[in-house]
Structure formats: structure tokens, C-alpha cells
Design a protein that fits this description.
The protein is α/β, with parallel strands linked by helices. 44% of the residues lie in helices and 15% in strands. A 7-stranded parallel sheet has the order 3-2-1-4-5-6-7, sandwiched between helices. Strand 5, helix 5 and strand 6 form a beta-alpha-beta unit. It binds NADP nicotinamide-adenine-dinucleotide phosphate. NADP nicotinamide-adenine-dinucleotide phosphate binds next to helix 1 and helix 6.
Length: 254
């Protein structure tokens, strides 16, 4: 990873499991000061102990990104911490799915998906940008962990609302880019759109049986594959803004 990120501050949302956990670990190992949030921070605290001999550091903050006051409090804590006090990289990874069809699903489940996948990501991106600006960072990077569901629909009624949230993320990626260019900022924004990744995602939000069926049907992407794509994005020279990375398991047929 580029030497210029060493000692700088990164936020990873949704870092208690899966892609976020893998990403937080990789950035600490590469010398960054990583703030990692989730609702359950016990796994992050354990990881911090495991990584205590690394040059980077890991700070766990309990934050439900769908709650405006919790997002504000997390950024306030980062601003006030003399060891942090700035923002260089923001990886918006927290996300979830519910099985909630558009014509028969529960409104509470639609709401929860939009609150976490869209509004949470938007609030963290805004706060991250403002902290970058306030701390004089003009080469920062905002990264959105989107999905192949953010660029194409699938014939799976339980997923349609999740797909809608992820299409919104694609629109946000381009919208934030437009706003950054309008203000002549050199801060970059990128998104990664993976297909199936073997994490806790399917099990958490559908069930164990479906998770086993999905993950045994093919060699799925691994969290490390997404990590490597994000490291590639972060390593691109300052004049290169990687906009979208689309990646699927070779065997995934949709
Ligand atoms: N796995 C896939 O097949 C796949 C494919 C494409 C895209 N993605 C996207 O990749 C991202 C990460 O998913 P994953 O596969 O790593 O899933 P995962 O293993 O289920 O991990 C999800 C992470 O998000 C956190 N999270 C959920 N709701 C949150 C909230 N309200 N506030 C803060 N953190 C929250 C969870 O932590 P807590 O529960 O502790 O809060 C957990 O750390 C998501 O945006 C997902 O949409 C996944």
C-alpha cells in the first residue's frame, strides 16, 4: 500500500464481521490509524488486542450508522481524540438485507435497509468529507462498498428492495463526485460492487440453510478479494480516480 497513507486516519463502518473486519485489519497492518465501528464492537476490540504490535492502531467505536445522533457522536469523538483528529479515508461498508418483497414486504424492513445502506452511508460520507476539509486533507478518499445489486436487478423478489438501496448508492457515488468536482476538491470517491462474498451476510439476514446453499454452490468471492480491490483503489496515483470496480465469482451466473 502506498507509503502516503501510513500514520493517517481511516474509518471503516460495519467492521465487526465480513468485509469490514478484513479491511480494518489490513489497514492497521499497513500502518494506518483505523477507527472501526459497528453495533457489536466486541470482535473489533479482540482484533485490536491481536494487532497491538502493529505500527498502525485500531480504535473501536460503537455506532449504529442508521442513527444520526450516533454518527454525529462518533465523528465528534474522532475530532476530539488528539491521536486521531482528522479523516483521510472513509470506507462505508456497513450494510444489510432483509427478505422483503416490494408488493408484500414489511415497511419496517424496507425502512431499515434504506436507513442503514443509504442514509447511514450518506451521513458518514458527509461527516467524513467535512472532517477532511476541516483538517486540511485534500487527497482523502471515500469508498463505498456497494454490490452488483447496485448496477443490475435480479429476478429474486426478496431482494428487490435491497437492490433499490444499492442502486441509490450508485447514484450517491456519482452525485458526491459531482459535488467534489464543483468545489475543485481533489478528494476522490469510488465504489466496489461485488457479487456473492462468503461472509455472515446471507446467514444473518436470511438463514443458515440459504447461506450454506449459496456458499457451497460455487467458489464465492472472499473478503480478501474485496480488500485487495480497495487497496488497489487507494493506491492509484492522485490523478487517477477509480470510479467503479465490478467483481463477481467466476462461476456466478447472474
Ligand atoms: N456478502 C455479500 O455477498 C455481499 C455482496 C455484495 C455486497 N455486499 C455488501 O458488503 C457490505 C458488507 O457486508 P458483509 O458481506 O461483510 O456482511 P456481514 O458479514 O453481515 O457484515 C456486515 C457488517 O455491517 C455491520 N452493520 C450492519 N448494520 C449496521 C448498522 N446499523 N450500523 C453499523 N454497522 C452495521 C455489521 O455489524 P453489527 O451487526 O455489529 O452492527 C457487520 O460488521 C454490505 O454493505 C453489503 O451490502 C455483500
Amino acid at each position: 500500500m502506498a507509503e502516503r497513507w501510513r500514520g493517517r486516519v481511516a474509518l471503516v463502518t460495519g467492521a465487526s464481521a465480513g468485509i469490514g473486519y478484513c479491511m480494518a485489519k489490513a489497514l492497521v497492518q499497513r500502518g494506518m490509524k483505523v477507527v472501526a465501528c459497528a453495533r457489536n464492537i466486541a470482535p473489533i476490540q479482540e482484533l485490536a488486542k491481536e494487532l497491538s504490535d502493529q505500527s498502525g492502531s485500531l480504535t473501536a467505536i460503537k455506532c449504529d450508522v442508521s442513527k444520526e445522533e450516533e454518527v454525529a457522536a462518533m465523528f465528534q469523538a474522532i475530532r476530539k481524540d488528539p491521536n486521531l483528529g482528522r479523516m483521510d479515508v472513509c470506507i462505508n461498508n456497513a450494510g444489510l438485507a432483509h427478505n422483503a418483497p416490494l408488493l408484500s414486504g414489511e415497511a419496517s424492513q424496507w425502512k431499515n435497509m434504506f436507513e442503514v445502506n443509504v442514509l447511514g452511508l450518506l451521513m458518514c460520507s458527509k461527516e467524513a468529507f467535512q472532517l477532511m476539509r476541516d483538517s486540511g486533507v485534500d487527497d482523502g478518499h471515500i469508498i463505498l462498498v456497494n454490490s452488483m445489486s447496485g448496477i443490475r436487478t435480479v429476478k429474486s423478489k426478496g431482494s428487490h428492495c435491497y437492490v433499490a438501496t444499492k442502486f441509490a448508492v450508485t447514484a450517491i457515488r456519482e452525485g458526491i463526485r459531482n459535488e467534489l468536482r464543483e468545489m475543485k476538491s481533489k478528494i476522490r470517491i469510488s465504489q466496489v460492487c461485488p457479487g456473492y462474498v462468503e461472509t455472515e451476510f446471507v446467514q444473518r439476514h436470511h438463514n443458515e440453510e440459504l447461506a450454506k446453499a449459496v456458499y457451497s454452490s460455487m467458489k464465492c468471492l472472499q473478503p480478501e478479494d474485496i480488500r485487495d480491490a480497495i487497496l488497489y483503489i487507494l493506491d492509484a496515483p492522485p490523478h487517477v480516480e477509480v470510479n467503479d470496480v465490478h467483481m463477481r465469482a467466476t462461476e456466478q451466473d447472474f
